[in-house]
Predict the structure.
Amino acid sequence: MISIENLTKSYGAHQVLKGINLKLASGQVHGIVGENGAGKTTLFKCIAGLEDYGGNIESSFSPLKNHLGLLPTDPYFFSKITGREYLQLLCNARQQPLAGTDEKNIFDLPLNQYAATYSTGMKKKLALTAILLQQNEIFILDEPFNGVDIQSNMVITGIIHKLRSLGKTLLISSHIFSTLSDTCDVIYMLKDGQFIRQAGRDGFAEMEVEMRRFTVGDRIERLRLG
Amino acid sequence: MNPIRHYFQLQFTMLNRHISEFGLPPWLGYLLSGVLFVGLSFYLYYQTGYAPYLLLFWAFGFMANMGDRNRNDFLKSCYKAPEYRAIRLLENGIIALPFLMVLSIKGDYWVALAVIAATLILAFRQIGRGSNYTLPTPFHRWPFEFAVGFRKTFIFHILAYFLAFMAVKSGNFNLGIFSLVLVFVICLTYYQDMEVAYYVWAHAQQPKVFLWNKIRTGLFYSTILSLPIAATLCLLKPGYWHIILVCQILGYAYLATVVLAKYSAFPKNIGLPQGVLLAMCFLLPPLLLLAAGWFYRQSAKKLQTILP
């Protein structure tokens, strides 16, 4: 369980998060949608402790970050580290023994190649594999479906369902609404650093319509394409 | 504006920003770099007869870095083929110039010619192109600085071991010590850049444990790289074992201090205060004790924010 109260974050005069309140229950998948720059990644970084912030973040795990697996939007890899070494590094970081790597390589990644040479989707899958092998209790997945092939999308969806059944806490962001509606128990809509709406499973369809209305609006007409 | 001119103006601006971020006015940065380069080059000439070859390797290393595949793919995608070739040639030429000046002053014209050849070849031949070869290392258990660093600098390790071989062959103990020191200097460079915060954050450790593990790994892996040379030197000149031991211990001390200096600047790269203090330690080794203590306190404080 994670409880976030009145979370604020500013970069200079620019306030990115304006009083976020959120409760992340165990065994539930929480989704966040929002435009680019709405504050999703900043929110994730604050929860992970990668950014300082105003307000309170409390958790039943102490310290929270030691039980948290963070999948960044664009995972960073050193230019000369192999996939296998990356997994070893991340497991070492949490004192998790790493055995049977080849069996656990569920995305069939070329682990003996340098990770930096992987495609965008492969990098994402490697980073996801690493945080799964860390045996975390909480997972924050920033755009986990971005750049990943359709087969792997299905595997990731399966992983999310499995983690939920194991009682893990998940927070996911995506620009593709259908991926969230397939996996989440509750979805929050973030706009200009504030949650403007939230919906449970029965309200997803209505939320998608509303999102389309205010996101698309008259933007396409404004282009006067013909 | 001419695209090549614009490119180099931009490079100059970015270089100035790097120097400013280091905490120096750009003009002073250029001046110090020049003085350091000339001083180090002549010091190498003073120390060893292999100085011209070391300078050649040094220049080669810089140029190979500029020939990085991703960087060149980017340049190729931005510029027309003739402009790309001109840029790469000019870049390598700028790098080669100071090396050519020192080599010419010292009368090592053949080596200077080799630098010119490297300038031309590396301007058009990219490093790492078409190769999926992964360089194996003995550092897989605790991968990171040493696995990544070794792969980037393995050519310099070959050089160090070549010098050690020449030292044994010619019975030149000083050259052997130089090769041992070179191994440690190469290892120190593995800690020059700060990793992205995620790699620190990922650790379920308190700052003290994190730092100790970093140092322990560094000492263990630097031993793997340096011990063959140290042991060979002991066999070559058993009477000088104490000199070899002092070099080894100093190598460990500098390595530990550099690890601490690196994280004392977290999340930024080592800046002017750390740089000045480290430079003073190189001039006056007893200062290491004070510097290490100060760096340790700073590191623990800086890491506390991300490793509570």
Notes: The longest strand of chain A covers residues 14-24. DSSP finds eight helices and nine strands in chain A. The longest helix of chain A spans residues 150-165. Chain A touches chain B through 30 residues (CB under 8 Å).
